[in-house]
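Section 4.2 – Deliverable D4.2 (structural model, holo form)

The reporting period included a commitment to supply a predicted holo structure for the target in complex with zinc ion. Inputs used:
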Amino acid sequence: VAEHCIGIDLGGTAVKIGLVDSKGKIRDSIQIPTGSGRTAEAIGESIVLGVERLAKKNPKYPARAAGIGVPGFTEPSTGTITFIPNIPVLEGYPVTRRIEKALGLPVFADNDANNAARGEFLFGSAKGIRNFVFITLGTGIGGGLFLNGDLYDGYKNYAGEVGHMTVVPEGRVCGCGNYGCWEAYSSVTAMVKRAKAIIEKGNQTRLKKYYPDRLEAKVIADEARKGDFIAEHVFSEAAKYNGVGIANLINTLNPEAVIIGGGVSNAGSYLLDRIRHFTQIYTVRKSWEAVDIRLATLGNSAGIAGSAALAFMKTR
Ligand SMILES: [Zn+2]
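Output (structure tokens):
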């Protein structure tokens, strides 16, 4: 059996394709633009060509399967993308079958956060942990639930949408149409929006230097760490709602670990300290004593390695 799998990370602006070994190492990768205005068939075709190019460049490492990570929902038995707000042209498109047919390899598709959880389980900071919650803090908030040694996908494969847990009834509006979702408080998008509103009101803060285009999670964390009171406020407010969301998950699932990934996790121990602080407040004591909150380790390779992890887990 071949010891490599292909990981395909289907993003809004680019498709990243990588050849991944059984330890999670990306041997080789390429990137192709998703391109606006392209048809589903054209995008499917360029993914096939991309995988073929990668295979031709690496004849010594044949792949046994491919996995696809989708920023949305898929229907597991048919491999059809059922919901993908960033690339709506792909909705209803049987991406898995299309690529499977062209490549002659088993191909699987799932939500990208679910795949990132699989990646952390096989290759990263959740190795050997049978019960954990993976949270990705980025432009949105996603999650993957690992229960009794496998990913929990729910009745229709919609499980793990933790970012749309209500943390403030009738609170801030969310992209999903609801009010008060966790994502509307603690995502990068939410933090940047909050910082902008505070600056626009005329408050003094070093964050002004970055206004409007260079405001991002990293500068907010950096300035907060250096003592800017407003930056500290924005960051801690987001951390507080992370605490609410994570505590609800811990109270419900009693996981051994909570793994934090996504762009915000680059803030490292500064983020982790604040999340631990707030999560502890809202968690029942026994579950709090049993859980470890830690950072994901796959970082930027989570998309490709996670998609490959799906393929590894489905073919072992
Ligand atoms: Zn929502």
